[in-house]
Design brief:
Layout: H1 2-12, H2 23-36, H3 42-53, H4 62-79, E1 89-90, E2 93-94, H5 96-100, H6 102-121, H7 128-142, H8 147-157, H9 165-190, H10 195-222, H11 232-236, H12 238-254, H13 263-274
Length: about 280
């Protein structure tokens, strides 16, 4: 995990540095890089891990891995805004809008949502077919049927008392599961894996994403974090949420059984279930 995290940290800022001494551009880049610093790098780790597990060269996965981290960062910059989740702290420091003000934070999030596609398109290590497929699956995971659509479901659910388990799981799948799943798929694409491996990566990632969100909710509840977001914890309680997280984790592990070099993926899956922060 350290190897993949360090590789991400070494590469991601190379795609977003000053090209001139234009002060507004420098302010924007500073805000983007401020939010990119820190974090567990789980999504790029999954890109690298699937690429390597399926026999690929992880150097070929660098641009897509960093692109996924940029997308993830853009999402939480926007989520933290007062009009959405209204969080003041992210990755152990002031949220972007607290540090730079709301206008620049919004624009930094916007910029980090489009730069990834330029990064992928310019990646010399990838074939044209790989680039098109990666851009397609990444855009789908982020848009109306993915992360952004999940955020809309989240907002709409806060005013409801009749939300069902099925609706909450669908929200988890869109808001968090899709980007985690596409990280696995992108790693497989970088390794030039076949259709069955791509499907296995997607199925694994969706279940890992569901378990990840359930553990997040459990940790928030254990820390006494107050929220008006609908969740399995608010619907059923911590014990049921833990039971469901274990179920999705077990299902995820079944989807990587046919990968010869699956040791790290299995260890990571268990680690994410057992984490305490």
């Amino acid at each position: 995990m350290d190897k993949y995290q360090k590789l991400t940290d070494e590469k991601v800022f190379r795609y977003n540095n000053y090209s001139n001494d234009n002060r507004p551009q420098m302010m924007l880049i500073d805000a983007m890089n401020y939010s990119l610093k820190g974090g567990k790098r789980i999504r790029p780790v999954l890109v690298y891990a699937f690429c390597e597990a399926l026999g690929g060269n992880i150097e070929y996965a660098s641009a897509p891995a960093c692109a996924v981290e940029m997308i993830h960062t853009s999402a939480f910059i926007h989520d933290d805004l007062p009009t959405l989740d209204n969080d003041d702290v992210r990755r152990g420091k002031e949220a972007s809008h607290k540090k730079f003000g709301e206008p620049l934070a919004i624009l930094a999030g916007d910029a980090l949502s489009v730069l990834p596609f330029e990064v992928i398109a310019d990646a010399n290590e990838l074939t044209a077919d790989q680039k098109v497929l990666i851009i397609s699956v990444l855009a789908n995971s982020v848009g109306r049927d993915g992360m952004i659509g999940g955020q809309v479901i989240d907002i709409e659910s806060r005013a409801r008392e009749d939300i069902t388990e099925e609706e909450i799981i669908n929200m988890y799948r869109c808001k968090k599961g899709q980007l985690i799943a596409v990280s696995c798929v992108i790693g497989a694409i970088c390794a030039e894996a076949g259709t069955e491996s791509l499907r296995g990566a997607a199925e694994f990632g969706l279940r890992l994403g569901l378990a990840y969100q359930l553990v997040d909710d459990i940790l928030d509840a254990n820390e006494g974090k107050k929220t008006d977001n609908a969740s399995i914890v608010t619907l059923y309680g911590v014990d049921k949420a833990r039971e469901m997280a274990e179920k999705y984790t077990a299902e995820a592990l079944e989807w990587v059984d046919n990968i010869d070099d699956d040791g790290f993926l299995k260890d990571l899956t268990q680690y994410l279930l057992d984490r305490t922060k």
